[in-house]
Design goal:
This protein is mainly alpha-helical and 147 residues long. The chain has a domain of 92 residues: lambda repressor-like DNA-binding domains (434 Repressor (Amino-terminal Domain), Orthogonal Bundle), CATH 1.10.260.40. The chain contains seven helices and no strands. Helix 1 crosses helix 3 and helix 5 crosses helix 6. The longest helix is centred in the last third of the chain and has 23 residues. It is globular.
Length: 147
């Protein structure tokens, strides 16, 4: 045994963190509601400590989701097996919502009420992403050689 957290424990913990952060709840507040310290919540969120079924049900109730929420989007290979010889990556939405910038972007976007403005922002972000992708795929221009 390597002592590394199991991929499912990491996934469940990251979903706990994602939901807690989306609600604007601190680790201290979640811990208080569970009768735990924020350090224990940290360990659950990192997957260092496994969450029991009964504790997961408590967390789900506090965070306003079903226990199955924590298993949604379980990455391929999370059971410890690999398919096609490759381990699964974290779903993009999870990575975004766990970053400080992604969280700020999500909160700010949620406050925009005008659907046309929201659509314009989505179009803008898509255009920037497409531009980055296109420039990354272009081969580097050869250095100019002047005699």
């Amino acid at each position: 045994m390597t002592g590394q957290p199991h991929p499912i424990d990491i996934h469940v913990g990251s979903r706990v963190r994602m939901r807690r952060v989306l609600l604007g709840m601190s680790q201290e507040e979640l811990g208080r509601n569970l009768g735990l310290t924020f350090q224990q919540v940290q360990k659950y969120e990192k997957g260092t400590n496994r969450v029991s079924a009964s504790r997961l049900a408590q967390i789900a109730e506090i965070l306003g989701v079903t226990p199955m929420f924590f298993f949604d989007a379980l990455p391929e290979g999370a059971t410890g097996t690999k398919k096609n010889g490759q381990a699964a990556n974290k779903p993009p939405i999870e990575s975004i919502l766990q970053s400080p910038d992604g969280l700020q972007l999500n909160r700010a976007f949620a406050r925009i009420e005008d659907p046309k403005v929201r659509r314009s922002l989505v179009d803008l972000v898509r255009a920037v992403a497409d531009s980055n992708e296109a420039s990354a795929q272009q081969p580097a221009s050869p250095a100019s050689t002047t005699p």
